[in-house]
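Table S2 (continued). Query chain:
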Amino acid sequence: MNEVKTPKKPVINFWIGALMVLLCINIFLKPYIQKMQIQDVKYSTFISQTEKKQVKEVEVQENKIVFTLKDDDKIYETAKMNDPELIDRLSESGAKFSGEINETMSPLASFLLTWILPILLFMWLGKRMQKSLMDKSGGGAGSMMFGMGKSNAKIYVQSTNGIKFSDVAGEDEAKENLQEIVDYLHDPNKYKTIGASMPKGVLLVGPPGTGKTSIAKSLSRALKKPYVRISLGGVRDEAEIRGHRKTYVGAMPGRIANGIKQAGVKNPLMLLDEIDKVSNDYKGDTFSALLEVLDGEQNNKFVDHYLEVPMDLSEVLFITTANSLQTIPRPLLDRMEVIEVTSYTENEKLHIAQEHLVPKQIEKHGLKADQVTISKNAIWKMARNYTKEAGVRQLERKIGDICRKVAMEILEKKKTSIHVTERNLEHYLGKELYSYQMANEEDEVGIVRGLAWTSVGGDTLQIEVNVMPGEGEILLTGQLGDVMKESARTGISYIRSVSKEHDIADDFFKKHDIHIHIPEGAVPKDGPSAGITMATAIMSAVTGRKVRADLAMTGEITLRGRVLPIGGLKEKLLAAKNAGMKTVLVPAKNERDVEEISTEITKGLEIKFVTHMDEVLKEALV
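Corresponding output:
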């Protein structure tokens, strides 16, 4: 966004109009104000004051009498009666006859009412008008609006307030990245001097319920930009983005053009929600249509087929959300700044529930804060045993279930307040739905605990291997995907290559069958991070050596035994901690990822970095 010069014409017009209104006030309203200063009295009161010689000055008009008193400066008037002795009475009382009594208020009061007060009023209206135009045009906090009514006529100055994600807990790394974008928008020239530029599209990727949409809303409020949300889930027609040509029946503009119209300005914050759920069919490639929208080099002349005129989208800040990057084409990813929004820890879920979810649900169900309280341990138990997610959506539903039952109890049993604790939680939510597969109590042969990443967070997988007499067959069960099957075969090949070092007979694999199973059998499993886990389980079963029960591991294996890095480490370590593991083996190339993880997760875990399978076996086998 470029800095613009100060247009003085709107400012001059505003103050000229204010001056004209001031003149009108003094010409037309001043006599009315003076009129309001004259006090009406009865004729009998006037005669009484005349007889008491209290009248100072009098003016007899055609149908009224205007007079002043000696003991105050007020002006009085009364109706004129048919009294032939009036002039004599006034002369005897010593009243002074005047051709015209100066019916004016005090100079100070007149000056305050006709000049100072209107000027202050116009200054306040000018400030309110400027703020209103700023909010409508999308200026940042601390920015200045000069071109009234034009969203692109603004200049950004340094802001000291920064961005505040008041309704989003956790996600410190994502907030830090977005803070850089906010700073750029507040003062772009500072970054342009060093050759830096801002990405025109930001992709927030993470599991459901982790606050991606909330972050976009908070960013919109921090920048004071209009917020427009476009849901792309299930969109499969290119015309949804580019619009229909007018030759078709029922033609209409695309969603991008409608979003700009809805915002009313040319530089809103536009949220493209669920971009990974976009699909394609014979009507066109929707992802390719989005390329032009999100490409900063092309979107300054985006053409909607219905409008048939170029639209400038270069000043729009696009925020997109996705649960996975696997379905998004690489060219489209290259147009966006990818920011990972990871799973919430239990402590973050606790704070979110206490500060946001519980008050929200209490208000939603018509309750008061003193009618229902939910203890910290009850929230922790809900997060562990009644929900299984990376975000907090299910947790909010469970809190809503509690509020509904509490409202029913208050209504039927006439209770004044109810306290929900860990003990009576089952009364409101029923029996526990989930339980963590805790660490085994004893070391066993052929059983190794692996770590996995899922769409709802991390989890642990207990890999079991049995060796039986046979003809060298390898059985793989548990709905394993192709990648995991290849990892299992790679692990067996590595073990066979080092069989002499571990005193394994040359014909062992010819005379024995190996069965690898990963519970639960009904759940499909796939991914590259279970290689060292399956290799360790196979080695334990073949050699008869036990594996530590308090140890978990994650990492891919090569034919030569090298340990390759993996992803989703935060969720995996969180799952290991919840399962009661004490030691976790992690690829050495993931050491940088561990350093970025908060101590809340790593506290109590002994994380050991490994580079080769020999190190894994040394740590795992008893």
